[in-house]
Amino acid sequence: MRVALRPVQASDEPFLLCVYAGTRAEELAPLPWTPEQKAAFVAQQSAAQTAHYARHYPGMSADVIVIDDVPAGRLLVDRLDEEILIVDISLLPAHRGRGVGSVLLQEVLGDATAAGKRVVIHVERFNRALHLYERLGFGAVGDHGVYLRMEREPASRDTTTRLTASHRR
After folding, report:
1. Minimal CA–CA distance to 16: which of 101, 84, 76?
2. How does pLDDT run across 108-148, given as a tens digit for each residue?
3. Which residues of the chain have pLDDT under 70?
4. pTM summary value
5. What share of the chain is helix, strand, coil (3-state, %, to 5)?
6. Which CATH architecture has domain 3-168?
7. For the sheet containing 147-152, what is the strand order?
8. Nearest-angstrom CA–CA distance, 153 and 23
């Protein structure tokens, strides 16, 4: 499996809407809405999220996650003076649980270690990826209702190497 990143382009908008829809599918499944109503809701929410991110994280990098030359998700990262903020990491449902998130997060953690910065992410408390973040050394430092603020302090290069080695087993 080859995992790569490429900058988001305007032509990626329909794909990114599908990625966002994939993050909301379980939540919307039990609602008695028509498929058209769900699609309209997802489009409205995606546009609102995009506008919010653009307003609050103007310097963030926005990349499409590509697996074996196929677009599979997105990674939004804001590299600030004091910390690296993972704004969003999302994969289409078919690509989850394959280790892609671990690979990408370990790259971000390596960057943070080299820069001596902590890494921050806000995670819904019932998100399945919560265990991944804990395994990678993140700890909850704040409770924001539905979201937990999780941080990982800068690690030594030895810790990052151990994490990478344990991921390969």
Report:
1. 76
2. 999 999 999 999 999 998 888 999 999 999 999 999 999 99
3. 156-169
4. 0.88
5. 45, 30, 25
6. 3-Layer(aba) Sandwich (3.40)
7. 3-7, 61-67, 70-79, 83-91, 118-124, 147-152, 139-144
8. 27
